[in-house]
Amino acid sequence: MSPFELLGLAADADERAIKRAYAQRLRATRPEDDPQGFQRLHAAYQAALQHCRACMTGELAASFNPPMDRSVLVPTRSEPLPAAPEPPTLPHVNPDAFCTAAFELAAAGDAPALQAWLAGRPELWSLQRKAHTGHALMEKLYRQVPPMPADCLATLLRFFDLDHALAGHDPLALLQLERRTRLAWQLEVADREVLAARLAIRSSSQRRRAHWIVRLLMRPFRWPRVLFVGMNSANAGLIADFVDGVSDNHPEDLPAAINRRQLAFWRAAAERDRVTRPRLILGGARSAAMLLLGMLLAPLLSQWFSGRMSFQTMLIAIGMLMIPSALWALWMAWSLLVSWYLRPECMTARRSVRAYLVPALCAGGVVLGAEGLDGFGLVLIAPAFWLAVRRYWYRHASRHALLRSGHVRLMSLLAIPVLHGVLNAGRGGELVSFGEIIAALAMLAWTADLRKQRQRSAEAG
């Protein structure tokens, strides 16, 4: 019987098929249970490998069937079993201790040293033990996510023959594992230089800022520290940009040392498209700090400018400090109004209030304008116009490339005074006011949006 027949393979089997067949038969032929059967199987495996490699180098013909020593033949009833030497006893493998040692060596970042260490482990000379240890290693890799660079992870996978699609990996899960182990390694204190090189951080100030952000994200979430850091309105954006750059826009892959509450808070505080709770908290804290500063400066300034500045003038000067906070509060209120008005219909319970908000504001503004209060009327009409146009743009203009152009939007605003001049030309006075024109355009956008909503409802029904 040839070595290939003993392994259950054809004579033209490649090296990978030989290794796979040998590993499968090792499950039933253990060295400790059947030493002689293991010796025959191992001899057949070596002979098949020798023949396969010789055929690839051209030393043997492709159809050559290599002879086999009689000591590896399966014995028959008439032929006694030849005496075989006892196989060497391999050291016992402790998967937990082995994985711990391998992860510690991989964390050093020296892939050639890791490869040499793996090759010198005698307990892995048995393919069965090697396969079992490789599966245990993969389980611990996914569960623990130890820090290591990408080349060390590739060395581990290649040594245990787990670096190909036939190993049963999920490609996306393996890609995530590589990213998570690399991030855990780069965010360690000793390996921040590698992170700085990857992010192209060259100046010392950028390097200190990166280290400060990492330390902040690794600390427990404490409100005093968070509010103190948030006093600088630029810090939230800096932290969010750093997190996105480090994780390649996958913050969920950051190591467990990163405090998840810190991470979620600063990413939400950096959002500009919607009003979030962290944004409101930090903005309120800044406003309270400005108010407290004004209250502390008031008596000092009063004493300093005693006799030279009136108390009323001093209060006006202190009140100037609150202008940024007041503008911020108005902007937050406006953002909340816009997000509420643009919300899908099914997500709000008071559809009637939102549906008739624009007509109500336009009607109130026109009435105030008719009473001679044009300024107060524009305060109602301008938000109504912006809400109606913004909602139409948000829901329907995405289908038309022309409407998405910024030049078209600018020309639309410039058309208002032109239309005002055309309507009042030769009238001897102002027949139509700016407020009435803006209210008419707002109602036009509101009517167009309502018409398209009804068309979609009819098509869906």
TrEMBL record:
Q: Where are the transmembrane segments?
A: 280-302, 314-341, 376-394
Establish whether keyword Chaperone is in the entry. Answer: yes
Q: Does the keyword Transmembrane helix apply?
A: yes
This protein's UniProt keywords: Chaperone, Membrane, Transmembrane, Transmembrane helix
In terms of SUPFAM superfamilies, this protein maps to: Chaperone J-domain
- Record's InterPro entries? DnaJ_domain, J_dom_sf
List the protein's name. J domain-containing protein
Q: Which organism is it from?
A: Rhodanobacter denitrificans
- Lineage, broadest ranks: Bacteria, Pseudomonadati, Pseudomonadota, Gammaproteobacteria, Lysobacterales
